Amino acid sequence: MFDKLKVFTGNSNPQLAEEICQYLHLPLSQVMVRRFSDGEVFVEVGENVRGADVFVIQSTSPPVNDHLMELLIMVDAFRRSSARRITAVIPYYGYARQDRKVAPRVPITAKLVADLISVAGAGRVLCLDLHAGQIGGFFNIPVDHLFAAPVVLDYLRTHIEGDTVIVSPDAGGVERARAIATRLQCGLAIIDKRREKANVAQAMHIIGDVEGKLAVVLDDMIDTAGTLTEAARALIENGARKVWACASHAVLSGPAMARLKESPISRVVVTNTIPLADQPVGESKIISLSVARLLGEAIRRIHMEDSVSSLFV
To answer: Among the options 193, 213, 242, 285, which is catalytic?
Structure first.
C-alpha cells in the first residue's frame, strides 16, 4: 500500500518526522542536509525517489530563513530526481504574520514564501493552524489546512476542573475560541486591548465573566509572550481563579521563557510543531502535545487519495 510513499525531513523538527513515520509504520527516508563553510545549504537524496509520492516535513521555525532554504532546496532536489508528486508538510508556516499590507510600502511576505514553495516544485501543501486562513489562497496548488483543535480538546477535556472559560486574546481569535468553548460547553471571554499611545503599556479590558473560573487563553502561537502574560495578569486582576494558555505553535523567541516563568500562568499547553528547548524536569510550565498522529493520518489519506475533510475540525 505504501510502496511509493516516502517521508523525508530537514533539520527543523526531525523528532516529529520520526513520530509521524512510526504512526505510518514506515522508515524515515534518507536525505543529507548539510552546510558548506560559507553557510550555503547542500542537499543530497540518499535513495531512489523516481515515481514516488514524496512528503517533506519541515517547519519554517527559527532560524526561519535557514529552515525555509532547506525546504526549498529539498523540494528542488526531489523534483530533479523525478518524484511523481512532492507535498510540503509545513507544521509551522513562518512569515505567516506578514499576510497583508499594514502600512504603505511593506511586503506581503506570506505570499512571497508561498510562491517560492510552488516554484521550487511542490505540488501540494499540508499545514497546521495558519496564522490567517487566507494564506491558503496565496498558493496556486492544493492546500490542506489542518487544525490542532482535536489534540488540544482531548487534553482539556481530561484535565480541566471546575468552572472554565475560554478566552480569546484579541478580536481576531474569537472564532477559534468560540469553537473550543462550544465543544467544551463552557463560557467565552474576549480581551479588548488598547494602546493609548506609542511605548505606553496597553490597557486590557475583559469582556465576559471570569470571576472564580479557570481562564484558558487560546491563541495560534506564542512568540515573545508579552501580550499573553499581560492578558494573564488582567484575568487574575478580574478574579480568575487560575490562568492557563493554549497555543499550537511555541515559537518562544527572545524573552518569552522568562516572561512565562514570572507570569501568573500556571500551565502552557502547546503542540510539537516546533521543538522545545530542553527544560529541567518539573521546572517548566510547558506541556507539549504531539500532532504526529494528526499529520500522519493526513499523509496516509493524501497518499491513498482519500478524503481528509473529516480532519478539518
So the answer is: 193
* Assessment of whether the complete model's pTM goes beyond 0.90: yes
Q: State the Cα–Cα distance between residues 62 and 274, nearest whole angstrom.
A: 9
Contact status, residue 245 vs residue 217, Cβ threshold 8 Å: yes
Q: Of 56, 104, 51, which Cα lies nearest the Cα of 76?
A: 56
Name the β-bridge partners of 10: none
3-state secondary structure of 20: helix
Closest to 297 measured CA to CA, from 286, 306, 284: 306
Nearest Cα residue to 306 out of 96, 75, 144: 144
In the annotation, is 193 catalytic? yes
Q: How far apart are CA 182 and CA 164, in angstroms?
A: 12
Amino acid in the structure at residue 145: H
- Nearest of 144, 215, 129, 209 to residue 175 by alpha carbon: 129
Amino acid sitting at position 117: I
pLDDT, residue 195, reads 59
CB–CB of 135/96 below 8 Å?
yes
Collapsed DSSP state (helix, strand, coil) of residue 128: strand
- Reported as a single tens digit per residue, the pLDDT across 161-220 is 889 999 998 888 898 899 999 999 999 999 987 655 544 446 578 999 999 999 999 999
First to last CA, the chain: 27
